């Protein structure tokens, strides 16, 4: 679990540091502009990291399934080699798809239309600028979105249906609580990430709402991920209790 969490943390750092500074610069600047090369870089990075996170969250669900439903065989199933292969496959698949999408999108003619009504360069918005038929691009984008959004979400739901059934068979309430605690953080991250992404790519939102959805899965979710995972950690709870006890007039962590 911690191996995949380290991959997720690194991915979130890349997400926020690559998209955050240019976004903030545009918010504060009176001249809101981006070069063609900068737009290509933004498109490739955002798509690559987003696609990788889609697969990585599904892999983490499979890891939780193996840990809870097959505890005695967990170390055999989730071997170090398999973990490396699944993580590497997620990164390679995400960036390969991003490269193909970037090439297909940026080669479309725009006939001088260069006003992007969005917070960064993203495929659905760039397709609207094209002055040619984009039916193929839209169909291809929909197919990729199904593959990277619907399929992983389906795998996650199936995994957690088995996990839920296995947890309910645990006799002790303490055992059930511990099992559920290992899954709630992941489920919260899945909801925060996949919800806005599906809303953006599978059902194009009304004007204005797309910016909020994109901001959510590119900036808000990566920012909340560390809080969601660490605040459920007993070691973090202990450190916070010790910190609060040192402060005069404050009670311990409850």
CATH classification class: Mainly Alpha
| Beta-strand share of residues | under 5%
The CATH homologous superfamily is termed: Rhodopsin 7-helix transmembrane proteins
Order of helices and strands: HHHHHHHHH
Indicate how many domains the architecture comprises: 1
Please identify the structural class as seen in this structure: mainly alpha
Helix content: over 70%
Number of strands: 0
Q: In angstroms, what separates the terminal alpha carbons? A: 26 Å
| Gyration radius, in Å | 21 Å
If helices are DSSP runs of H or I spanning 4 or more residues, what is the number of helices?
9
Largest sheet: none
The overall average pLDDT, rounded, is 83
Shape: globular
CATH topology: Rhopdopsin 7-helix transmembrane proteins
Which CATH architecture?
Up-down Bundle
The low-pLDDT segments are 250-254
Organism: Alligator mississippiensis (American alligator)
Main location: membrane
Subcellular location: Cell membrane
GO molecular function, one term: olfactory receptor activity
Explain what you see:
With 254 residues, this protein is mainly α. It has a single domain (1-231), classed as Rhodopsin 7-helix transmembrane proteins (Rhopdopsin 7-helix transmembrane proteins, Up-down Bundle). It has helices at 2-28, 36-69, 74-77, 80-106, 123-129, 135-168, 173-201, 209-230, 234-246. Keywords: Cell membrane, G-protein coupled receptor, Membrane, Olfaction, Receptor, Sensory transduction, Transducer, Transmembrane, Transmembrane helix. It is a multi-pass membrane protein.
């Amino acid at each position: 679990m911690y191996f995949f969490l380290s991959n997720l943390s690194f991915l979130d750092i890349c997400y926020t540091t690559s998209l955050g500074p240019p976004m903030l610069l545009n918010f504060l600047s009176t001249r809101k502009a981006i070069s063609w090369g900068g737009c290509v870089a933004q498109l490739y990075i955002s798509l690559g990291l987003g696609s990788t996170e889609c697969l990585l969250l599904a892999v983490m669900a499979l890891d939780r399934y193996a840990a809870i439903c097959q505890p005695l065989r967990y170390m055999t199933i989730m071997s170090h080699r398999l973990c490396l292969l699944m993580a590497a496959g997620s990164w390679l698949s995400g960036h390969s798809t991003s490269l193909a999408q970037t090439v297909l999108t940026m080669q479309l003619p725009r006939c001088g239309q260069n006003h992007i009504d969005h917070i960064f360069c993203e495929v659905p918005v760039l397709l609207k600028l094209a002055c040619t038929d984009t039916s193929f691009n839209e169909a291809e984008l929909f197919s990729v979105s199904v593959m990277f959004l619907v399929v992983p979400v389906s795998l996650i739901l199936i995994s957690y249906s088995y996990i839920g059934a296995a947890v309910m068979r645990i006799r002790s309430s303490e055992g059930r609580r511990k099992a559920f605690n290992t899954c709630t953080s992941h489920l919260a991250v899945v909801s925060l990430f996949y919800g806005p992404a599906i809303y953006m790519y599978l059902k194009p939102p009304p004007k204005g709402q797309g910016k909020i959805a994109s901001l959510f899965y590119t900036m808000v979710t990566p920012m909340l991920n560390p809080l969601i995972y660490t605040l459920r950690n007993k070691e973090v709870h202990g450190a916070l209790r010790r910190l609060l006890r040192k402060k005069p007039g404050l009670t311990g962590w409850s």
